[in-house]
Structures are given as C-alpha cells and as structure tokens.
Prior knowledge:
Blueprint: H1 5-13, H2 15-18, H3 26-55, H4 57-72, H5 89-92, H6 113-131, H7 144-156, H8 166-187, H9 202-216, H10 223-243, H11 245-249, H12 256-267, E1 272-275, H13 284-287, E2 294-295, H14 299-308, E3 313-316, E4 332-336, E5 339-345, H15 346-356
Parallel strand pairs: 1-2, 1-3
Antiparallel strand pairs: 3-5, 4-5
Helix pairs in contact: 1-6, 3-4, 6-7, 8-9, 8-10, 14-15
Amino acid sequence: GPVALLILLPLGMLGPWWQEAGSRSPWNWYLGLTFSLFIGLAIALAWAIPAAKAGGPAYGRAILWGQTAGRAVKSFAHRRPSWWYLPIIPLVILPWTGQLLRPARSIRMPMDGGTRFCLCWFFPALLLFSLVSGKQAHYLLPLLPAAALLLTRMMLSVNQPPAVTPLKTMAIIYLAAGIFLTILPYTISHAKNMALAEHHMLFWNFLFIFGGIILLRQRSAPVDASIIGSCVAVVVFLSLVHLGPFHQLKTRYNLAPMATKIAEQQQKGKKIAIYPAKFSNQFQFPGRLTAPLQAIDNYHALKNWLKKNPDAVAVMVPKMPLPTVPGMKPEYSHPFRGRQSSLWKAEKLNFVLQKSLK
C-alpha cells in the first residue's frame, strides 16, 4: 500500500546525491521520478477504487483512508512511541550487532555511490517509520537488505577481525535456543497447551546445543570467511526452528479445519455464535464465510442466545476448558493457539453450560 512510499520516496528524492556524478541531470531524474510515481498510484487506484465501490462506503473509507492515515497519525493498532525501533534494531541484525560497537575512527568505509544509496535507503525510512504511530518489528524487513550491505561494507573495510565475532554470537543463540526449549516444558504451566510438551522432541534441542558447541570451537578466521560462516549458521538456525518448534506448533495456528466446519454450517443455513467475541473475525477468510458470526462475550448472554436459537450452533474458544459432561461432546474440536476450539450444537452446549455454572 501507500506505506511503500516511506521507503521509496526519500530514496528517490535523494537520487542526485547517491548517483555517480554526471550520470543524469537532476531535472531529468525528478521528472522520471514524478512520472513513475503517477504510474504506481494509477496501478493502485485501478484496484482500490472499484473495490471501494463494491464494498460500500465503510469499506471504501477503510482502504482509501483508514488503513493509511489511521495507522500513521493515531494508530488504531500497535501504537508505540517514536523511539520503539531503536532497541529492536540490534535484535533484527543479529549476529552482526557487535559491529555497532566498533569505534567510528576504526571504520574506513568508502563513501561511494553504493554506500550513499544504502544510507539513503535505510536512515530516512527508519526516521519516517519511527514517526508513524503504528509500529511492528516486521515493518523493518524492507530495510534489512540495506543494513546488511552497509554492515558487510563496514566489516570488509577494516584490516582487523570484527569486534564481536558473529560466529560466537551465533553460538550463544544456538545454545540459548537449545536450553530454552529443553527447560520450557518444566517451567511454564501452559507449555502443554502450546504443544511443546505433549509432542516435545529432545532431538531438536540436541541439534541446537550441538550446533552451538561446534560454533564455539571455531577459531579466528578472516573477515570474509567469518561473514560466510555466519550467514550459513543463520540459515541453518532458521531451518531448525521451522523444522522443529514451529512444525510442532503449526496445527495450533491452522484455522482452516475449524473454519471449514463453520462454513459447512453456514451453507446449511444455521445461525452461528462464537465465544469469546474477540475471535469472531478469525475464521472469516480461511473459511470464506458469507456472513458474520454472532459475537458473544459472556456466558449469560450465550445461554440466552442458545435458548432462543435451539437449532443453531456455537463455536467455543474459552480460556479455561469446558467441563466434561457424560454423553455431551462437541461436533468438532481442534487446537487453537493455547486453547481448544470446539463446535457445538446449541442444545448440547446449553446443557453443558447449565451444569458448569451451577
């Protein structure tokens, strides 16, 4: 969306500074920039205007104004202070964070066109993202290539090894991940709900710890070899995370099975309620639902709704599990994050609630 301009527009406006001298006149550059900007806006509006007309006034205001201005000035979600990104940056550039501790006088980085390009890419966009009210760590992802190029140029521009060896940093990350996953099931009471205890595999923890020990034993290497080794270590680490802990958690974050069951009930013409109300919009997209769910936020209101709609169904995602009543089971059940989601016929659920609330 329009947020892309926070990255591209400052970079374009500073084009005459980062380009090689005499490569193009500033007037021609800014004329081309303006022309390309209008083309980009035309492409976006070719979708947004018909979508706004089809979706109605409220939807049109949301996509044409609310999603941009609403997040930029006084965000309706993820509102954070202007300095919030500063402590995040050292985390997102791991394992090369130690390069930020290097004294400025030890850096011999040539200020050529490539370096200026990366500086204009990273710092103006970071400033604008900091001024925007809504902030998330992943908003910085488009800036990471510029940071990677600048850090690499910085590391290769000195004749001494990095101040903090990236391989040693990766060793600490490996060991910390292995130790954390090993002790997690025994220290967090709800770890079982998060599928880290019931399907826990020590094999992956061993791989993290073993990898950390190998990296700790690495001797000093030239800077370029250290960079390559660190990149390989990062890729292997992320692969282990996805194959191990994330693979175990994926069923907890897969909304499609329950959403499909809800869609089947809608196709049968059933009225559907969901408790608690904050989950009422979670199943819309994966289930391609054609109507909103009846959002209910307390058991008393839910019981009244069930009595008025005995042929309806209800989706339950309670924080505490529902009590077990002999002969009363949901039509379908599926893990949902740290909870259990279930689909009930109204009569059965009403009977269970009456038993549990007595």
